[in-house]
What does this fold into?
Amino acid sequence: MENLKRIGVLTSGGDAPGMNAAVRAVARTALANGIECIGIRRGWQGLINCDFIQLTRASVGHLLSKGGTILYTARSEEFKTPEGRQKALVTCKMLGLDAVVAIGGDGTFRGALELSRLGVPVVGIPGTIDNDIGCTNYTIGFDSACNTAIECIDKLRDTMQSHERCSVVQVMGRDAGFLALYVGTAVGATAVLVPEHVDDFEKNVIERIRGAKLAGYTHFMVVVAEGAGTAHDVGQRIHDALGIAPTITVIGHIQRGGAPTGRDRETATRMGYYAVMALVEGQGNCVIGTQEGSIVQIPIEDALKMEKHLQMDRYNIMEIMQFGSNHEGEM
It folds into this structure.
């Protein structure tokens, strides 16, 4: 891209571990190519309000291990309006931004598309713990969130086994069950409920608990994605059917926090690097993603049309690991 002198970088939507690593990579790659980097604070709303900081190699140091985002994040209803986007465009002109790198999920990319239509080149980096962006196999934050949930459930299981209890654990995933399925498989859950799989509750929860009891188990773990029902509702249904009172745990926003894992740090660094290089090479208005382990560029409009479906082979594997064909096996 000719005359690329200054770019902005922002984080938008829900925070995800590894966003800081991506900001660091964007800033340092830009500076290494003789490009100034401006951090836009509080997402698209910050672009409207001209809320920014200058990023230097020193100011983005020590970010790899930090959770959250130093640029803060917010959702902006104002940016959804033509008037709001015009204000954001004025900020781009005022700051002399030749392009913007936007880190977030689908909502962030929809905003990026609108800004690009006003003439500002934008590159998106997928950052969301749900891993539900269709154009990429992997999103920054997913591995960290899974490991946090797994650690919490492992600790919960220790006390659950001691007291011979049933536990229902709710993890994030409003529209997608990737997180719940991964975590459920990793902890050997008795049952996993995800939005994509219409469950026969009697068969897939009650009968599995009953089968585990008949096989000699005295503790049961049910993992539910928030989009498949609340832990309290699931616990009540179990109580009504079996007469047991499950303990209820909602892991909640703790999944978003904490130091990112090595995978998220490394992936975020690569994505941040390729985002800037895409702009340097004149390939703006795209999303940086991963497909089959490689970094790819997808036009934003195409990226927003792509869908990602839960891999049912993984769901089937989880079921086999639970009970096999005779409701017997390790949990």
